[in-house]
Design goal:
Elements (H helix, E strand, L loop, with lengths): L2 H26 L25 H21 L3 H29 L9 H22 L5 E4 L4 E4 L2 H22 L5 H19 L3 H17 L3
Antiparallel strand pairs: 1-2
């Protein structure tokens, strides 16, 4: 059994344990879904549903990624270990933006949440910092693989940087738009992340495969798979 398979089981166990601890706490402090009254009346039945489950996701990802970091460090694969850090920081950064949005909705009882302009600004800053870090500090390069042509092309930084930022922002907001029906975002994310994780394994991009394995296990946990 390789480590990527092992981290799947570890991720599952961590997610279950955290869910057992955190969900009762959310229920106790009455952190429940607040539905907008200008939407479909059928959505009002979701009022009070325990939410902010992203806390479980974030803690699980942080714990399992840290375990992966330490494992590869001990194994003498420092490059893989170090490459996990910027991906984890990107995930945490986006998670913080989502937490602020949920906090305004659930604790401050503001159904609008974080203003879209503020949310986009936060996501943009995090995306820019991430891309600049991996290019200028980690020196990851600007190669892009085109699956249809089965080839790699080298993009100039002036093109790669804004393109990469656009992809990150577009993907993030696509998830936000998809998350309009219970479970819809989770089901879509489970399929897409599984696909990307398999691609990362085939391309031997270990750090992405690790993060993908950890993340997708959380989504499948929702379906008790």
């Amino acid at each position: 059994m390789n480590f990527q398979t092992t981290i799947l089981f570890i991720s599952f166990i961590v997610a279950v344990l955290l869910a057992v601890i955190i969900i009762p706490i959310l229920k106790k402090v009455k952190i429940g879904q607040i539905e907008r009254d200008d939407g479909p009346k059928s959505h009002l039945k979701k009022q009070g549903t325990p939410t902010m489950g992203g806390i479980i996701f974030m803690l699980s990802i942080i714990i399992c990624t840290t375990i992966s970091y330490l494992y590869y460090k001990v194994q003498g694969q420092a490059e893989i270990a170090h490459n996990l850090i910027p991906i984890l920081c990107l995930t945490i950064g986006f998670g913080v933006v989502g937490f602020i949005d949920d906090y305004k909705k659930l604790v401050l009882h503001n159904t609008k949440g974080l203003k879209p302009s503020y949310k986009m600004l936060g996501l943009l800053i995090i995306s820019v910092l991430y891309i600049l870090f991996i290019i200028h500090i980690s020196d990851q390069g600007t190669e892009m693989f085109i699956p249809i042509l089965k080839t790699e092309i080298l993009l100039p930084k002036v093109i790669y940087i804004p393109f990469a930022i656009l992809v990150i922002l577009a993907t993030t907001n696509a998830i936000n738009l998809t998350d309009g029906v219970d479970g819809l975002s989770s089901s879509v994310c489970a399929i897409i992340i599984t696909c990307l994780t398999v691609i990362a394994m085939l391309r031997s991009v270990t750090e992405v495969a690790i993060i993908g394995s950890v993340a997708v296990r959380k989504y499948f946990r929702i379906f008790n798979v």
